[in-house]
Structure formats: C-alpha cells, structure tokens
Amino acid sequence: MKKLLYLLLFLQISAQAQQILFVGNSLTYTNSMPKILEYIGKQQEVIIKTKSLCFPNYAIIDHINDGKLQKLLAKKQFDYVIIQQGPSSQTAGKRMLIQDGATIQALCEQYNTKLGYFMVWPSVRYYHTFNKVIENHKSAAKQNNAYLFPVGNIWKEYNTYKGKESLYSLDNFHPSTAGSFVAALTIFHQLYPTKNLQQLPFKKYKKWVTDEDSFNLLVQLVQKY
Q: What is the mean pLDDT of residues 182-201?
C-alpha cells in the first residue's frame, strides 16, 4: 500500500513538472544553461525538467532538416519548445526566425506544445546590430503567436552599467556563467511571473555570478520584464 502511495505521488509530481525542450546551439548549451534553469526552479519549489536538442552552429532550419526534432516531439510530450539561433540581425536572419519558426509552431500545435523564442545577443564585434536583434526576435514571436524570452533586452540594458561582471565569455560572443545565469533567470521569470525574484539569496547563485552587486542588478532587471 505504501509503495502504491509513493508511486501515485511520484506520478502526480511528474505530471505537474514543466517539461521544456530547448532547440538551439552553443548559445544555449554553454555552461549547461538549461540545468541552471532547473536549479532556479528547485530553489523556488517548482519542478522544471529540460531536454536539449542543441548542436554547434545550428540554426532553426538545421533542426528542421535533420528530423530529430520531429521524432522527439512525436515520442514525448513537452509543455514548451524554446528555440534559439544566432543573433539574426540581418534580413536573412529575420526571415529564418519567422519562416522556420512558423514551421516549428505548426509542429507545436500538432503536439499541443507552446512555442517560445530565446532572444539572444550579438557578439561584441557586432554590438551595433543589437537593436535589430531585438526587433527581429520580437517580430518573429509576434507573427508566430509565440512566447518571447527577452534575454537580449536585459543583456543590453545591463551593459549600460559600468564596472559590472561581464555577460560575455573570453571569445566576446558566448555567454559567461553570468550570461547563462541571466538567460535562465529570464526564462524562469517569464514562466513564473508571480515569483518574487528579489528574495533570491546571492550565496546560492555565486558559482555563476561572483559579484553580488552584479547579481542584484541582474535580478532587478529581469524582474522588470
């Protein structure tokens, strides 16, 4: 009887868990960002389970063409599919975000799953294109009736503050651990907007953000969106 109760409790918890599929490239898998999201959820007493379909230099169309995404959606139920590709500041990138995103939105509708865009950031070299990155992701999400996780917005505003911990890694494109943390926190906040992020204890997150002032600023900015 006791084993049956444990099994029923386990099944109930599993059913309540958010199942998220990340579809992207190294901007997602660097520093195991989806696992940071799971950790944040655990600290906030919510269960988030993630799976990553992310490969180096992949765009959305590459995932569509290789067919692994379709097979995975047919096999397992997800609450969200969160897609990500490069900055996509140019016309071709915008077209890919919209058209290829529409293809994945059709798949999501087929499998009763919600689509979301993970808005990224440009490299330091192409920082001047940041406004286009933001604009194109917003347009794609709006046209495809998808969720938008505005990491790029927060990244850009954070960088207006001087002397803070860098969100860029040494290659000036991939995220540092702080960059991956703010991506995960942004996604968490959009999924659970009623959770009060101001209560996050710095000591539990300092392995990703080592400077407390930078941590507090990131939390403050994420809470705004």
A: 95
